[in-house]
Design brief:
The complex is a heterodimer. By secondary structure, chain A is α+β, with helices and mostly antiparallel strands. Chain A contains 5 helices and 6 strands; from the N terminus they run H-E-H-E-H-E-E-E-E-H-H. Chain A folds into 2 domains: about 25 residues, no CATH class; about 150 residues, no CATH class. A 6-stranded antiparallel beta sheet of chain A has the order 1-6-5-4-3-2, sandwiched between helices. The model of chain B has no long low-confidence stretch (mean pLDDT about 85). The chains are: A alpha+beta, B alpha+beta.
């Protein structure tokens, strides 16, 4: 952002943008995604990365989960047997929350906020919240079979993580089904 | 004995103006433009909803320049059957924003049906129409910071701080590559005027609202802190003109 001091008003406007920018760029990395993947499969280390194309078959379900299309055509994931790991992003209020999710035998084994960029709602990073996803499964209606208690003041971030939990379970179903067929 | 002077023949009584009267005139003239602007913008702001001031956007280049809505520095661009451009940390493909704050743009290559933009921290795979296929970062990129990207027989070649790496045709896996080969490395090119203008338009977005401009004109902030002081002075002058005007009108009426 250009901060010109030639005109005093420009510095005022620039300072307002900068204040916004401070909030906008307030990125906090709780766990590096590569560290999450390295830890996700225990001592054997992470398997090779695989990729799932979001085809026209998958897109309607993904849209019903997120309320919009996922902003990419291809997703990376890691798989060993019945265990898959995903790094997914969903916007909380204005900026994406990067989340790592491990699914094992169709149940969420772990959900962890990796990178948080919003100015509010960071409480969702705490285990007291993310532990609620443990063992959650996907219903036929593409919803979680467990109730996730919300956090006052972090509703949008909570909703974003619930969507990502559902999305990871749905994507896991797809890769497990394609492996079985 | 002199005859009585008739009332009608008397010389008109010249009312003495008070000492401050010249100041009343001077201040009125001096601040007339400011007072008119403050009054008119005040009336408009009172009817923000009816006049839809919030919805009306100003995209005039002069106004946006005045507001300092310009990206910092100069853009850099790479051609790959389309233009990858970076300006003030924002990355664009053919004038459309891709991502901000993603490291320095180092190049772009065109594969058969994938366009690959490389920054020091990430790779962006796009369709020829600019739809994002995938964003690759430290999790699935070769180690090190990306320094250079090129095309080797339809595959992506990367030079990072840790060495050279060649991708598979899907740009999903990387192998270390040692051989010297005929790689077409991506090189920065002069930024076309159309791409520069498209990026500038995207950066400026929808401009500023008319409400914002009128509010800043009303408060004087449109002209910086000096403008605020001028409006303050005009307000004090308006108070002075009102009080002296009322006082003088009442004095004349009493006589």
């Amino acid at each position: 952002m250009k901060v010109s001091l030639r005109r005093p008003f420009r510095s005022l406007v620039a300072s307002l943008f900068l204040v916004g920018g401070v909030f906008a760029s307030d990125e906090e990395v709780f766990l590096a995604p590569e560290r999450f993947i390295a830890d996700a499969f225990g001592e054997g280390g992470a398997p090779d990365v695989e990729r799932l194309w979001l085809t026209t078959t998958l897109k309607p379900s993904i849209k019903s989960i997120l309320g919009r299309d996922y902003p990419a055509l291809r997703l990376r994931y890691w798989q060993r047997g019945s265990r898959t790991a995903w790094i997914l992003e969903e916007i909380g209020k204005v900026r994406p929350i990067t989340t790592g999710i491990i699914v094992d035998s169709g149940r969420i084994s772990a959900l962890q906020v990796l990178v948080y960029r919003e100015s509010h709602g960071w409480e969702v990073k705490h285990p007291f919240f993310t532990d609620q996803f443990q063992d959650a499964q996907l219903t036929e209606g593409l919803r979680l079979d467990q109730t996730i208690d919300s956090i006052a003041g972090a509703t949008m971030s909570v909703d974003a993580l619930k969507k990502l939990g559902r999305l990871a379970l749905y994507l896991d179903q797809q890769v497990q089904d394609s492996a079985d067929s | 004995m002199s005859p009585p002077v008739e009332e009608s023949n008397r010389a008109p009584v010249r009312r003495r103006r008070p000492a401050w009267w010249p100041w009343h005139q001077r201040l009125g003239i001096t601040f007339s433009v400011v007072i008119v602007a403050v009054v008119l913008t005040g009336i408009a702001l009172n009817h923000t909803g009816g006049l839809r001031l919030d919805e009306r956007r100003i995209t005039n280049a002069w106004v946006l320049d005045w507001y300092g809505m310009n990206p910092e520095g100069e853009p850099i661009a790479f051609e790959a059957d389309g233009w990858a451009l970076q300006w003030d940390e924002q990355l664009y493909w053919d004038g459309q924003p891709v991502e901000a704050e993603t490291g320095q743009l180092v190049g772009a290559v065109a594969l058969l049906d994938i366009r690959v933009i490389a920054t020091t921290d990430a790779l962006f795979l796009l369709t020829p129409t600019g739809e994002l296929i995938e964003r690759m970062d430290a999790v699935d990129l070769p180690p090190g910071s990306v320094k250079q990207i090129g095309n080797l027989n339809g595959n992506v070649m990367l030079t990072s701080t840790e060495g050279k790496f060649l991708s598979d045709p899907d740009v999903g896996e990387w192998d270390r590559y040692q051989l010297a080969a005929d790689v077409h490395w991506s090189e920065a090119e002069p930024v076309p005027a159309t791409e520069r203008e498209a990026a500038l338009q995207s950066y400026r977005g929808q401009g500023v609202s008319l409400y914002r401009v009128l509010l800043d004109l009303h408060s004087g902030r449109l002209f910086g802190s000096i403008g605020v002081w001028v409006v303050d002075a005009a307000s004090v002058a308006m108070l002075f003109l009102t009080l002296t005007g009322v006082w003088y009108a009442l004095r004349v009426k009493r006589r």
